[in-house]
Write a structure and sequence with these properties.
Layout (H helix, E strand, L loop, with lengths): L2 H14 L40 H15 L12 H26 L6 H27 L22 H26 L3 H24 L2
Length: 219
């Protein structure tokens, strides 16, 4: 009967002991986290660490696919193709219109030019450009390309030409031939149609000769 109080007091002592006084099993050494595990710093706002890195894989794949889509050029929407065939047709139009203009200008100038050398050049322009226009028109018709209609020549000039007519006409012909030389050179080098390139190569030296003669006589 004397031992009962001691046992009771021992039990009360154990219950009254603070929580930190109770020994816990020793924890093992801290294990390092796997390299591929997520940290709170690597999570985007609103993401949960409990979801795990596996839940982010589809999102990452979708984002990569979206970025790749942005770098791919949009496909053509179709329509008329703009390229060398169009350039060839444009060359025919510009070269024909330029030839018509120079022939008509040379014919009108023959009645007003004072210098014999300029009259000789004007006659040469009429003959050479008329022949080139005929060859170009025939080639375009064979290719079923549109050809500008011939330009109608105005009435012959009346009255006496101004004293500076020779100079103005020469400057006008030089400017026109410089444009023609650039046009024919580009076509001879990069034209798509083989026959049209050949025509440009064969005609270019004649236009260059015209330009050199006009510059020689320019005052």
């Amino acid at each position: 009967m004397k031992r009962a109080p001691l046992t009771l007091m021992a039990a009360i002592g154990i219950l009254a002991a603070p929580a930190w006084a109770i020994s816990l099993p020793a924890a093992g050494p801290v294990q390092p986290m796997p390299e591929d595990s997520l940290t709170l710093a690597s999570l985007a706002p609103g993401e949960s660490l409990a979801a795990g890195s596996a839940s982010l894989v589809p999102l990452m794949a979708a984002d990569m696919q979206a970025n790749q889509t942005k770098t791919v050029d949009a496909p053509s929407t179709g329509g008329t193709e703009v390229g060398k065939p169009i350039d060839d047709i444009t060359f025919v139009k510009k070269a024909t219109e330029s030839g018509y203009k120079e022939v008509n200008s040379a014919k009108e100038a023959l009645l007003q030019l004072q210098q014999p050398e300029l009259k000789r050049i004007a006659e040469m322009l009429v003959n050479d450009h008329s022949g080139a226009n005929a060859r170009l028109s025939k080639l375009a018709e064979e290719k079923h390309w549109p050809v500008p209609a011939p330009q109608t020549q105005g009435p012959p000039p009346s009255g006496t030409a101004s004293s500076d007519f020779d100079q103005k006409w020469t400057a006008e012909m030089i400017a026109g031939h410089e444009r023609s030389v650039a046009l024919y050179r580009a076509q001879a080098k990069a034209g798509e149609d083989q026959d049209l390139r050949k025509f440009a190569r064969e005609t270019l030296p004649t236009i260059e000769r015209h330009l050199a003669e006009l510059k020689r006589l320019q005052k």
